[in-house]
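ARCHIVE CARD
Drawer: 12
Card no.: 0347
Subject: one protein chain, sequence and derived structure
Cross-reference: see card 0346
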Amino acid sequence: MNTFVGHCIKPRAPGCQRGIALVIVLWLLILLTVIAASHARVIRTEIRLASNQVDASKARNLAEASAHHAILELLVLDEALRWPVNGSVNRLRYVDGEVAIAIRDARGLIDINWISAATLDKVLAGLGVPKNQRQSLIDATLDWRDKDSLKHLKGAEDDDYRRAGMKWAARDGPFSSIEEFRYVMGMTNPLFERLVPYLTVHSNQARVNLDYAPPWLVSVLADTQNTTTGSTTARGGSTYHITVWASSNGGSNASLELVVRMTPTRDPAYSILSWRAPARSINRVSG
């Protein structure tokens, strides 16, 4: 022991040099092992992320392909084979996953450009909105879409929005989209989210055709307007809301909703009016 210590006291002694070299080699091995393990972990993470991106892309592609599938279904001439347009769900299985598709005739939804004050009041009451708040929102909606600057009793015109510190004013024209309804004075985000599954700007009629309406809307409006009778299949020249939910085999999900105007006797046979991904609400599918 004393001899070894004596040798190590002299740096140039052969035994001491061999000991230092061994320590250096051991530390290099440890360092290389740590680097290799870290590199392997990075590679595994990158592979997992790439795999997730590929799987998410599969889900998006499924959703988009299924949207075009739904459009083709609307062009089917045989009414017996045509998909229903009352919001019922059609489920399809593909190699890469499965999808749920719902088509609803826009006439089964509330057109906020045409809805009457009485019908809007009925819908808001069905959601539990207090009477005073309902009247203010109804009047503000009428002021938003009419072309004049005359204010309804509890409504809101440009000056009211400015006084409220808002950076916008009443459009004084038709709503250009459902989302625009958010900006009407008196509308709140929670209330809008509850309303949005039942709204459209594409039916161009004040009445809701209950043949195509979601169950909740039917329950609210059934006693205020007569339920029309007729087929729940597609009719040429109408507008439809399509909602698609896709799930890949790897567990990724994607959704979208679009509005399509069908003109089968013209070229092109259809036009896409809006395209949104992801979909606003699963209620579009569940009804």
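Annotation on reverse: Helices lie at 2-9, 14-74, 117-126, 131-145, 158-163, 189-195, 215-221, 283-286. Residues 14-74 form the longest helix (61 residues).
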